[in-house]
Write a structure and sequence with these properties.
This protein has 512 residues and is of the alpha/beta class. Helices cover 49% and strands 14% of the residues. The longest helix has 27 residues, at 104-130. The termini are far apart.
Length: 512
């Protein structure tokens, strides 16, 4: 007997790639919780969230996933994998039904049916992979594994047992004689079928569409006590067929191959994201496989957009604003200033989303992208005061940023949004300078959204990005964030907005 070719995972090139982390705060700040919730909708049975919490740090591991997804983009293979998933779902439903039922032979029938569906699913996928042109190491290895498994005694023996038991049960024929409360079950002995004669006799009564007096049976799987007793009597009449069913269930209860079960779950990681972004791609939004590096921090991104926001705007792709940005040389931190409600927070979220999605091995929402693979993505967003901490808002922000900076390394990404906006300009500038110094001395990548324009030119690691407005109407935002020096109006705009002194507000008040 030839051994089955080894296969590890369709998600991980090597054991140990990726490390699971639980960062609910970061997911919430970047709206990735919304993205992943939408992706797993209808897929609860696969428990995909642990995979979303397991980013990769190695460009090789990311390339492994890119190759798998490119193979899945071919329609025949993508369709075959989707059909395999549907059959496996049917199989699990049959197993679940078997576990719920009480009647012995009915439970065993559903187990037999589950095994039959499983065999069909595996055989169909093996045939599809055999005729597919594969480029990925993941699917190439899995094809070899599946071909060996489908030819193994474990699988062919299972298939033969299913066929033998099914054939034996299909030969079962019996008659039921009901007289009063007495039910008699006998073997079928070629008794005449009176169905045609009865239909001819009563055909004349059907001319005027008579009232239907037939009783409809309950559409439930569970047998009642009469049905279960009849089935037991039938089993007595055909002991060999039902003994074969008993034997099959005793020997083949653990028929499901562990590697195939893992593949069925893991491949949904790709399918969930593909289905999520499919409407966006159909609407004209572009996604790309980013060039990634675990060492080089130079960054180039063209035509990027916020994935969570875009999902809400579908199918109006024209309403989605794309942005370009890049970091070269010693540049590490984008300091984003500009008017309120001008897209600064969206830009910050997009920056974090891009890096995290890239570390999951997914296509990212951009026309093209060169990205660094961080060891971790941190966020520092404004929070409501929490009375349980017994701290004021500013103090709480200081405590949280200290915790972040203590954990962050030079390989981290930090996204800060409207940090220290609750304090005075002087304090915000002082604390901001200290934080940016810590960020640049560590060498991490980051975004700092702030009303303190001076931070944009603090050192050579800082790159100024500004939210733009329509030139002829400063009150109208373009939601584009462009690379240019801060204009010195961010804090003034913040104060004007706080005291309702911006142009639209003044115009509204004067009109009243």
């Amino acid at each position: 007997m030839n051994p089955v070719a080894p296969f590890g995972s369709i998600l991980f090139d090597r054991p140990g790639d990726g490390a699971e982390r639980d960062d609910p705060g970061m997911f919430r700040d970047l709206n990735l919780d919304q993205v992943f919730a939408a992706a797993v909708a209808g897929r609860d049975e696969y428990n995909l969230m642990p995979f979303f919490r397991t980013p990769l740090r190695d460009a090789r591991a990311v390339a492994y996933r890119h190759e798998v997804q490119r193979d899945l983009e071919a329609e025949p293979l993508g369709k075959a994998v989707a059909e395999f998933a549907l059959r496996m779902r049917d199989m699990r439903q049959d197993l679940e039904m078997s576990g719920k039922l009480r009647a012995r032979y009915q439970k065993e029938h559903w187990l037999l049916e589950a095994a039959r569906v499983y065999v069909q699913a595996v055989a169909a996928l093996a045939r599809a992979l055999d005729t597919s042109e594969l480029a990925s190491a993941g699917f190439t290895r899995f094809r070899a594994y599946l071909a060996d498994y489908a030819g193994s005694e474990a699988f062919t023996g299972l298939e033969a047992d299913i066929q033998a038991v099914t054939s034996a049960l299909e030969d079962v024929r019996y008659c039921i004689n009901i007289k009063g409360n007495r039910v008699r079950v006998t073997k079928y002995e070629d008794e005449p079928d009176y169905s045609a004669e009865v239909l001819r006799t009563f055909a004349k009564f059907a001319e005027n569409a008579p009232k239907d007096y037939r009783v409809r049976f309950r559409n439930v799987a569970e047998m009642d006590h009469v049905e279960a007793r009849i089935l037991d009597l039938v089993a007595r009449l055909y002991p060999d067929a039902f003994s074969a069913l008993d034997d099959f269930c005793a020997r083949r209860a653990g028929y499901l191959d562990g590697t195939i079960r893992a593949f069925d779950r893991e491949v949904q990681f790709y399918a969930a994201y593909r289905d999520l972004i499919a409407p966006m791609k159909a609407a004209g939004l572009e996604f790309c496989y980013p060039a990634v590096s675990g060492t080089g921090k130079e960054t180039t991104v063209r035509g990027a957009f916020d994935l969570a926001l875009s999902a809400k705007l579908m199918p109006q792709a024209g309403a989605v604003v794309r942005n370009d940005f890049w970091l070269a040389g010693a540049e590490r931190i984008f300091v984003v200033t500009g008017p309120n409600h001008g897209g600064k927070t969206t830009f910050a979220r997009m920056f974090g989303q891009l890096h995290y999605l890239a570390s999951l091995g997914y296509p990212v929402p951009a026309r093209e992208a060169v990205l660094f693979l961080p060891d971790r993505v941190f966020t520092h967003f404004e929070r409501e005061e929490d009375l349980a901490t017994l701290r004021g808002k500013f103090e709480d922000e200081l405590v949280r940023i200290r915790n972040v900076l203590d954990q962050a390394t030079g390989d981290s990404v930090l996204v800060m949004n409207e940090s220290f906006a609750s304090t005075t300009l002087r304090d915000a500038r002082y604390v901001g300078e200290r934080v940016v110094d810590r960020m640049t001395s560590a060498g991490l990548l980051g975004v700092y959204v702030t009303f303190v324009d001076e931070l944009a030119s603090l050192n050579e690691a800082c790159v100024s990005m500004v939210g733009t407005v329509v030139p002829d109407n400063p009150a109208e935002r373009t939601y584009e964030i462009v690379r240019r020096p801060a204009d010195g109006l961010a804090y003034a705009a913040s104060i004007a907005g706080k005291y309702r002194l911006q142009y639209p507000q003044l115009k509204e008040r004067l009109a009243s």
